[in-house]
What we know:
This protein is α/β, with parallel strands linked by helices. The chain is about 40% helix and about 15% strand. It has twelve helices and eleven strands. The protein has helices at about 5-35, 40-45, 50-70, 105-115, 135-145, 160-170, 185-190, 200-210, 225-235, 265-280, 295-300, 340-350; strands at about 70-80, 120-125, 150-155, 175, 215-220, 240-250, 285, 305-315, 330, 335-340, 355. Strands 1, 2, 3, 4, 5, 6, 7, 8, 9, 10 and 11 form an eleven-stranded mixed sheet that branches. Helix 1 crosses helix 3 and helix 5 (about 135-145) runs parallel beside helix 6. The longest helix has about 30 residues, at about 5-35. The radius of gyration is 21 Å and the shape is globular.
Amino acid sequence: MNAAAILAGESATATKAQRAAAECRSVAAELLDDPDNLDLALRLHAISAEPRNAAVLFDLACRIRDEHVGRCFVPAGVVSPIAICAVTPPCVYCPRTPGYFLTDAQALEALTMLAGHGLHWVYLNGGTLPGGYDAQALALVEAAVEAGLSPVLNFGPSFSRAGLRALHRSGAAAIVTSTEAFTPELFARLKPGEAPDARQVLMDDCEEEGIPFETIAIAGVGERIEDHLDHLRRLRRYRCLRRVSFSRFRPAAGTPMADCMRCSPWAVARLVALARLVLPPACEIGLNMGLEADELPLWFAAGGGGGRIHAVVASPRDDGHLPAGEGSRLAGPQGCVVVDRRPLLAGMLAEFGASLAAFPPRMAA
């Protein structure tokens, strides 16, 4: 093929790409004006499968994020897991290990330690005991507030309505009401031990009581894109919604889903960008705890961010080593491993023009 033919081919390809990018911009603009329009959202999702079109969607999502929530992240501590999960049978994707949880004494000591390292926010993650963790969670909230921390509680549907009120009065900053599965059929398959409406009831209780809440959605567990988009449309109606996080499914050994395929990061990135267009513009879009820091750049480029990022994690796991470059170990309660990822996160965020509040980046040499 001669040079003229090559150039002609490139020109035709460029023209086709320009038309596709223009279509992507047009559909995205329509969706911003009509975020409940499922057909528009599905069309934009289909168009964005092509990376050049996705770049147009990502750019718009990033501009919305930058205008409404900014590029400065707040490091948060995580104390997890605190209480045993009593759901039986367990969720089919969850690698629940008997005895793998922090005692109340370890959790209380970890709170003081996290506050001493300059953190202001902490996620308290427990297992689920329907209606059974009011008293334990209240004691943890009171201790966190006394230490100068703002606690966010993730115990599943484990609180009564009266318990929610008491937690809020005592200083709980938010409740995590993870929906995780969006249809009755998917919920029954993934979470056979839970009441199908318990998490929805918790979300509604928070809304009616005026309690800020967050939610987590799992991607890659057999759901359809229509399920995700319908879920986002329903979430945007809640006044008390503050944050939506996405968890990229990773199969765990020993679970019924151990042989399933892991979810693609590209699928999650496109979901993040669509969520930025559909959800209220000030809503935080998070990356769920437990995901590698390497997932941060694509998530940020797709419009993810705003507010808190899990930076210092206290857990019972002690495998004797840390992955090279992932973080440093802090002195913590006996039997508790505390990993500080702030240097890593600060450096990575600085590379693409973001920052970690009150923590200067320490870049690799």
